[in-house]
Amino acid sequence: MKTNKKFSVTKQNLWVDLLIAGGFLLAAQPHLTGMAIHEWLSLGLGVGFLTHILLHWRWVFETTRRLFGKLAGQARVNYVLNLALLVAFTLIIFSGLMISEEVLPLLGLQGVHGGVWKSLHTLAAEAVVWLVGLHIALHWKWIVTNSKKYLFGWLPKRRQAAVKPSEAAV
Amino acid sequence: MNTNKKQRKASFWLVLVGLLLLVGLVSGGVYLLDDQGLISLGGEMAGERPSLPEMSTTADGDTFLPPTRDHDEAGGFSGAGLLGLLKTVVQLGIVVVALTGFQRVYARLANRWGRAPAI
After folding, report:
1. Contact at 8 Å (CB) between A37 and B96?
2. Which of A53, A58, B82, B96 is deepest in the core (most CB within 10 A)?
3. A133 with B92: Cβ contact below 8 A
């Protein structure tokens, strides 16, 4: 018998976002992972970010179209923050490639060691932690609601009240 | 494919090309400014660590060897690595707690004043 399980876009988004968040936390610690994992994981994260943007492309398109028109304040704040994140992450990945010690040599290319690229990489990486924090904070309600629903849905629900007041009166 | 979908697809590539151009401009601009000596981004050191004496002698007479990058490149569960991870998590936590707290207070105040919160 063929089961037609309903596909949830929200669940898919949640899992993609969790993977990106975990990857980001690890990739931000080259001392912990080592350079090789740091570089390959960051490249993978780049693909993850692109997926994240594509999954929300309708929002990006519609918000860009209405940015200078009628748009909710929160959406505008979100848009500016996301744009800053996009620029920062692109800078990190691009400068990271320029100073790469593992990925570029594998392609037969030689990266630049240090200098401007290294400083840009460090500066953007410092800034991006705060930007990611703001991004998470602005979506905190969504994260909590959907984590409860899709990740911890199997947990027994807390009893809201031992006896309802209306029941107690009867 | 309807026109709206086509429009969205075309705009995606437009954004991607624009982003690459932006990165090129920012990187090129920073490089040029650093090259002209207008800003200092560690260019003088060329990103290298300050050189330590090749072989020097410590007070107790042992031979001192300058540290190598091998440890960083290898990774592993070191105290510094875990501390870095903890620092990032705490940083993210601070921002989340501060902003969600601010949102809650703002929403309460806006409710009292009879206005819808903007954030």
Report:
1. no
2. B96
3. yes
pLDDT for A23 equals 94
pLDDT at A155 over 90: no
What is the ipTM metric for this complex? 0.76
Rg (chain B; Cα; Å): 26
The mean pLDDT of chain B is 70
Mutation site, B12, B17, B91, B96, interface A, largest A CB count within 10 A: B96
Q: Does A75 touch chain B (CB under 8 A)?
A: no
Residue closest to A129 by CA, chosen among A28, A46, A34, A44: A28
Q: Which residue of A has its CA nearest to B22?
A: A87
B22 vs A29, A87, A117: nearest CB = A87
Size of interface A-B (CB pairs under 8 A): 130
Of the pLDDT bands very low, low, confident and very high (cuts 50, 70, 90), residue A145 is: very high
Cβ-defined contact of A114 to B19 (cutoff 8 Å): no
Looking at residue B3, what is its pLDDT?
62
Q: Are the beta carbons of A45 and A25 closer than 8 angstroms?
A: no
Nearest-Cα residue of chain A relative to residue B85? A29
pLDDT digits (tens, 9 = 90+) for B45-83: 444 444 545 555 555 555 555 555 544 556 666 777 788
Contact indicator for A28, A125 with CB cutoff of 8 Å: yes
Q: What is the mean pLDDT of residues B25-34?
A: 74
> Which pLDDT band holds residue A111 (cuts at 50, 70, 90)?
confident
- DSSP string over chain B: --HHHHHHHHHHHHHHHHHHHHHHHHHHHHHHHHHTTSS-SSTTTTTPPPPPPSSEE-TTSPEE----SHHHHH--S-HHHHHHHHHHHHHHHHHHHHHHHHHHHHHHHHHHHT-----
